[in-house]
Give the backbone structure.
Amino acid sequence: MKLVTVQDLVTRYSLEVLAGGTQLDRPITKTRAHRPGLEFVGYFDFFPMEHIQLLGHREIFYLHKLTEEERNERIGNIVKYHPPCFIVTNNQEGLKYLTKYCEDEQIPLLRTGLETYQFQELLEIYLSNALAPEIAVHGVCVNVSGIGILLRGKSGVGKSETAHTLIRRGHRLVADDIVVLKKISPETILGTHNNATKEFLALRSIGLINVSRLYGRKAFQEETRIVLDIELTKWQDDALNNELELEPKFTEYMGVRIPHIEIQLQPGRDVAGLVEAAANNWYLRQQGYVAAEDFMNRLMEGERNGG
């Protein structure tokens, strides 16, 4: 998990610092921003004090309507919990009372010109990604027709070469060699690069290539949701390679199960084409179509008709 600070938010969104400028190194640990409403009327039983406090038109308008005494009480009750920061949206003004309390308590008070809902959405997407649990695995991550695939296998088995063929067919590279997996929800794993290897693909006998420079910007993608885990292995003559319907297999990453497929390699096999077929077959399954079930139904229909 990366460390995100208030300063990171200031830099990323060009936020104006109104108070608490010496405390911008405060860590952000929660992905959701909170808009205090109940807290302004004195209800703190479920106050998420570790969350960023977002103040939009609704909150500031309410504070403006209060008497000075009431306003001081409402704000004083919140700042004593020392949330990471307050962010005011829509470039709202008339915040002297809020600035005073934040300066006294050394809590960063920031301001943006963006609309509340727009800024909240951007903020929470960024924090969900930045604060997500993550691991690094050896492999290649590609996006095939909008479907995120993690290619794994022993060193030298041909993962990067397969990715190169896929790129030439119009698909996209996400990461080569080291793939960073981020768990952004109980059921979602994102695959991305580690910055150092961004856009690079290592090909044996050729060396490093920059896919964006070689094949254009469409050849690279920053991240993708991983929905298939494909392992490339050496061909085994005694293995059953033409089963009508394989038992579903999964690989688990940080508690998230990803469908697993093994593709055995043999000279002359179109491995990239098999990866494309696996991706398209997964998509059809999401639409409710399973080829093996369709085939069995046809056999049964033929038997009923005496075929």
Summary: The longest strand covers residues 172-185.
